[in-house]
Amino acid sequence: MRIMSVFGTRPEAIKMCPLVKELAARPGIESLCCVTAQHRQMLDSVLEVFGVTPDRDLDIMTPRQTLSGITSKCLLGMDEAVDQLKPDMILVHGDTSTTFAGALSAYYHQVAVGHVEAGLRTYDKYAPFPEEMNRVLTSSIADLHFCPTAGNRENLLREGRDPEGIFITGNTVIDALKTTVRKDFRFATGELNRLPYGEKKVLLVTCHRRENYGEPMKNIMLALRQIAEENRDVELVYPVHLSPVVREAVDRYLRGAPRVHLIDPLPADEMHNLMDRCYLVLTDSGGLQEEAPALGKPVLVLRRETERPEAVAAGTVKLAGVVQDDIVTMATRLIRDKRAYDEMARAVNPYGDGNACRRIADAIEWRYGLRAERPAGYEA
Ligand code: UD1
Ligand code: UDP
User: Does the beta carbon of 109 sit less than 6 angstroms from any atom of ligand 1?
Assistant: First the structure.
């Protein structure tokens, strides 16, 4: 069996590299890897941390790329990769433009598709944009759906997907975290070794989503500035995404505020260990909403909606929205009110137990007759 994993952005790489390696360890499987390089530096950093060398690199990234540009270049590049590598199945991950284009290309070539991190929904086609629609379209094409949670499976069943093709596996991001987080970790980024963890409250921030471009991103930056200005016991660390749109907003509204550390994107192992040591996470990222709860860190989500309701239900994640006053009020409460903080700061793992890759590989083997029993699903 030739199984080709296709991915192109930082979060996909963090969540797919452990699976590429798990598949490579299976005797009946040849694990192939094709990167679109929708991201360049941020992708290469992850490949280095996990020691994965792609079989094909479509190298499509351009500055300020458009959605149509990414999708069309991925499709054209995939033609050659599929023709030459001849996979029996293509695996795509999550909700990016690479995901949708990878699935569509597989369909054009009549190659089976496995969708990792399947079934997440907000049912609002513009939030997250364009990720919600990327997921819906990919589900329509996929043959196997690997759902992180039981709720994700329910979503797919409601849409009429065949239950035989749906597996609850947990999220592979928890598999990744198990390999990166260590109590004795030393940061290569020296500044991070010197932060006053414990003495002061280290707030970890990320923000990059397309649906936040414009007014919402401005509000978020001004809220972060106000939080840093009004709380002397806080250090705010923000590894800034390489998107020029994001960098412009940061430069315009946040740079120069006291107690704010604006740094370049971190390698995944540094980011995960920083998260493990921080006090609170403020983010619009999908991945951070899954990682921080597993590490016992409260999260304020800088979005109006989330396709990851499980940690909200568990009480460790709250939706803060994109209005300056709301974000400031919610963050200030967690900084100053210990009881409110303690109520949220509990390690929960609705997103997995670190064995998602094993379950996905087992399911693929079962589907192709390499394993007799259908693998049991993950139960949170
Ligand atoms: C994309 C995904 C989004 C995901 C995010 C993760 C889509 C539509 N969006 O966001 O779901 O949450 O990645 O980070 O697929 N850039 C670099 N170097 C890099 C990466 C990006 O310079 O390594 C710059 C380039 O100018 C690029 C821009 O950032 O054009 C934006 O990259 P892009 O992949 O288009 O980001 P998003 O669509 O915002
Ligand atoms: N991440 C990282 N370095 C950073 C910021 C994020 O390694 O400087 C990791 C983060 O821990 C998570 C993933 O990147 O594993 C999330 O990616 P991103 O926020 O770019 O995308 P999203 O999850 O929103 O799609």
Answer: no
